[in-house]
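In this section we walk through a basic example: taking a raw amino acid sequence and producing a predicted 3D structure, encoded as discrete structure tokens. The instruction is simple. Fold the sequence below.
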Amino acid sequence: MMRRRTLAAAVLAGPLAARARAQGRSWRIGFLTPRAQPVPPYRDAFSDAFRRGMSDLGYFEGKTLTIDWRYADGDYTRLAGLAAELVALNPPVIVTYGTAAAKALKAATTTVPIVVAAANDLLGAGIVESLARPGGNITGLSVIDVDVSAKQLELLKVAAPRLARVAVLINPGNAANPVVLRRLEASAPKLGVEIMPANAATPAEIEPAFEAAAQKGAGAMIVAADAFFSGQGQRIADAGLRHRLATIGIYQDHVPDGCLMSYGQDVADFHRQAARYVDRILRGAKPADLPVEQPTKFGFVLNARTAETLGLALPRALIASADRIVE
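The resulting token sequence is shown next.
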């Protein structure tokens, strides 16, 4: 009996001792994102969520944690160089956001552990070998954007029943965005809607994309999931209101900025959850052995003020189905 208790205690002590060792020393990790550098520096919804996740696990920035941030400011051509910079620092782990950034790091190193906070279809993009056994040096969380775009189109049609033409804001530098476009083109006929692409790869291209869509008769804009777009909420919302296009995407923080709706996973919370992967790797786990997660909780956020500005009389059922309403 005593021997069984001793063995049980040893089994429990192993993970606890590993965490204590990890938390008892200082770590310097990297973080690569295509997003624009926030103001104040390094503080936005996504980075704050990641910090919160790390502090919840006992890692405190400025005390036991240093993060080397690298922002591409929406320029995907910079990702390869920034990835090489971080790899050269030889950190114990690099966190990243977005499919393009994950691919840049995959090309830059096969040894430094990589945690993807969120990216479209890690398996389909060839970044991991499988969801259950990622293989290699990369793991993390995968966004199911392709599967929610059709639902976003349905929500737009409910909000604006007379909607006949919908534009899709895509980033030509994001290989996953054309998949979203094709999925929407397949779903549109049964709703009596025509789909058109609207391209933007820089902040300056967002306004012209909305203007061109409005001139072609679009009444709404679906924002494809893209790490660059995620940091352009205010610019997207302003353009949508200026050209009277109802906007929807997966980013919940875009709705308070003035976008009409969001539907999908909470990408900021993905960043918080990524801290769990970092913690396990710092305690000795290998990315190849940590399954990729695809969180299945979806949220629907609605901006009632924007609906009023656009002259939309939203059905009561749609309002009642919202998880959160911005007044």
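Looking at the output, two observations stand out. The chain has two domains: 2-143+267-289, 145-264+298-326. The first helix runs from residue 2 to 23. In the next section we compare this with other chains.
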